[in-house]
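User: I'm putting together notes for a lab meeting next week and I want to include a structural view of one of the chains we've been expressing. I don't have a solved structure, so I'd like a prediction I can at least talk through. The sequence is below, exactly as it appears in our construct file.
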Amino acid sequence: MLKRFLVLTIATIVAISSTAVVSYATNPLKSAKEKTASAKSQLAEAQQKEANIGANISALEKKINATKAEIKSLNKKIDKAEAKMDKLTEQFMELENQLSLQESDLNARLKEMYLTSDTSVFNVLLNSENIVDFISNMDMIQRIHEQDVKTVEELTAKQEQVEKKKQEITETHDMLVTHYEAQKQKSNELVSDQQELVSAKAAAGQDTAAAQRDYEAAKANQAAVEREVNRPAPTSVPSSGGSDSSKPSRKTPALGNGIVADAKALLGIPYKWGGTSPSTGFDCSGFTQYVYARNGIFIPRTSSAQASGGKRVSIGDLEPGDIVWRPGHVGIYVGGGSVIHSPQTGDVVSYTAASGFRFGVRY
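Assistant: Thanks for the context. Below is the predicted structure for the 363-residue chain, given as structure tokens.
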């Protein structure tokens, strides 16, 4: 009964270990795919941002063109208003000159009629044949005077009309100039905004290019991880006594040196819980399993299984390439009392002293 229980327990442990191996093996690929998807999403966002800025630049270009057309139209209207103002000014001055001449002529004739002896009322009376003739002469003088006054009034009225029209044109001109200046200011602001957007688009283009590079790198990394995950796990040649997973192999010094060289080549790789690949990082047992697999030796996935899967040797009898163990942790002995291991989260594959481990394991 006890034997059956032990068999079931061992079978359960093996099943759990196998599941863990599969989980660890697929995690790097899942992580790589997530990174690729994230990089693709960031690239799409960068491209959309660049496209939006480009659309804004096009919209501003239309507004700038419309504003320039309005400025051109206003400029023509201002020129016409100024031409009318010049014409009305000339007309006003001409009327003013006529009015001045008319007033001068009127004053001269009045002076001649009323202030000289020839045109005095007494002379008019003496030169009249009778009272009817006198009245007729006086009436003529009066009519002449009234005609002159009427002429002056008409000229003054025309002058006032011209002045009023000139004032209206001046107000229109000033309004056009104000609108013109406002449109010029608006155009300048639009051009300034457009220049800022052009600079922003250039920066967005650089972000898009960087996102494109990141996406391509993520795809390349994913492809590498897929190749790594899908690569058949190397196995050692079984001995005549059965599987070598529980017996030491004939590890030669050359093989040990190869294991050490591969371990050193991974110095600096970040620690990653469950990690089994240099592209994603290693945990301690993932590191040792990867290095051994690179040299054609299959060992179990977990540190405890690795500790019990080979021949135990004391720390004093370690050879380069041996695995060293302490509770929950393994590394690779590289000689000279040093071990290379993947220590913990936040750290990288690095050297440590062999004295910190309890024993070695030789495969």
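A couple of points you could mention at the meeting. Residues 1-26, 233-249 have pLDDT under 50 and may be disordered. The beta strands are 276-277, 281-282, 311-313, 323-326, 329-335, 338-341, 350-353, 359-362.

User: Perfect, that's what I needed.
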